Amino acid sequence: MSGDPATPVDPVLARYAEAARRAGEGECVCADDGSHFGAGHYADVDTVPAAAVRVSLGCGNPVAVAELREGETVLDLGSGGGLDVLLSARRVGPSGHVYGLDATAEMIELARRNATEAGASNVEFLHGSIEHIPLDDRAVDVVISNCVIVLASDKDTVFAEIARVLRPGGRVDISDIVRHGAEDGSAAVDCGDRAITVDQYQAALWRAGLTQVSIQPTDTLGGGLHNAIVHAAKPCVGVRRMEPDDWPTVRAIYEDGIATGNATFEPSAPAWDQWDRTHLPDHRLVATDAEGRVVGWAALAPVTDRCVYRGVAEDSVYVHRDHHGRGVGTALLERLVAASEQAGYWTIQTGIFPDNTASLTLHQRVGFRIVGRRERIGQLNGAWRDTYLLERRSHNM
Ligand SMILES: C[S@@+](CC[C@H](N)C(=O)[O-])C[C@H]1O[C@@H](n2cnc3c(N)ncnc32)[C@H](O)[C@@H]1O
Fold first, then answer.
1. How many angstroms separate the alpha carbon of residue 129 from the centre of ligand 1?
2. What is the pLDDT of residues 69-107, one digit of tens each?
3. Are 201 and 214 in contact (CB under 8 A)?
4. Residue 328 Cα, ligand 1 centroid: separation in angstroms?
5. In 10 A of CB 120, how many CB atoms?
């Protein structure tokens, strides 16, 4: 399978072509400070061909944190001389398979020579770009990458491609460079101009439909730049826009939630027309299982029609009882929040009964904080109930 090789005149790729050529001739082109970049992040490089180590240009060691298992299929984005591919190949064993993808033809040639020298038969190097991954949907279990996504100008496209090629439940384990904290002096790297903040990185992964995002900045590179370890996963459910035809199922899930007595003050689900009038048309999602059945929904409603609060909305999230505890609510709420931030909303708020610990946990996981407890704020079935008011402020304000 072949991809769309990026243009050979790209100055970034020309630099990597030169690095591959020099490494192939025996020169060490990896960073020599031994700390922030290159082979210094690895304890086991003496087991791979020297040319792969000489051109180690990463900013971490994704293989060390990926917890690869026997038989898994792995994709390394921007695989360079093939160091991470060869180390992964050993972890997944003969029943597994590892793809390396790189836009620089010279890197692909070098990596293929290194694989031959290492006798690795379960690896394959693809010439193509991370913006158009030349693999089928759901082709891989794990995507790794080492200091490559920072170079991409269109990270949304890269993350959408990662989500596309991962199987549901698949994982993302990446070393990359992010912006974090104060601009502390000048940057020690020249690829930082396209680096994004931790919050922007998280939001972009959420927009792509990836979940369980964790971004841990590690060593500082100066200029507000840090190496970072990024983990994420592809949820086992799909998330898509809610259509009017979904309403009977959405309403049934809503009614089921109402019946718990712990979800809302609403006594019953309204008719479609009323629900449709009171919720924001561009912020309605459903989660679907492997058969395409709707198993949960989430939506935003304006809190008031006062102009000053135009960026403030209230969320609702309901998950079918058979699908609780499987990350469905998290996947829905993360996507809802990411899309709302992109649309310019600065606050999402919600009221949650104190007994509804699952919803409290869900919202806090997605960055909501408890503003306060509203005592005896309303009656449900004749009994006064408290709620917690929670809100999530956008980091893009
Ligand atoms: C900093 S080096 C890292 C190489 C390797 N991951 C490592 O740890 O040594 C970046 C690599 O990404 C490749 N690359 C840059 N932009 C790319 C793109 N858009 N698509 C695919 N590969 C790309 C370059 O050719 C280069 O091999």
1. 9
2. 999 999 999 999 999 999 999 999 999 999 999 999 999
3. no
4. 34
5. 19
6, pLDDT greater than 60: no
In CATH, what number does 11-233 get?
Answer: 3.40.50.150
Separation of CA 292 and ligand 1 centre (Å): 36
CA of 71 to the centre of ligand 1 (A): 25
Distance 118 CA to ligand 1 centre (A): 21
Atom of ligand 1 nearest to the CA of 107: 27
Alpha carbon dihedral 245, 285, 170, 330, in 10-degree steps, equals -130
Beta-strand runs (E) in 92-224? 97-102, 123-127, 140-146, 166-179, 211-222
Residue whose tokens read 């090629």: 165
- Ligand 1 pocket at CB < 6 A: 6, 12-13, 16, 56-58, 78-80, 83-84, 101-104, 107, 129-131, 146-148, 151-152
Atom in ligand 1 nearest the alpha carbon of residue 16: 25
- Please state the atom number of ligand 1 nearest to the C-alpha of residue 76: 6
Segment 250-278 shows an average pLDDT of 96
Residues 6+ apart with CB under 8 A from 169: 233, 234, 235, 236
CATH fold of 238-393 reads: Aminopeptidase (3.40.630)
Helix segments in the chain, DSSP class H: 11-24, 50-54, 62-65, 83-92, 105-118, 155-165, 198-207, 247-259, 272-278, 328-342, 357-365
265 and 314 Cβ atoms separated by less than 8 Å: no
Delimiting residues of CATH 3.40.50.150 domain(s) in the chain: 11-233
Please state the φ and ψ torsions of residue 140, each to the nearest 5 degrees: -130, 155
Positions of CATH 3.40.630.30 in the chain = 238-393
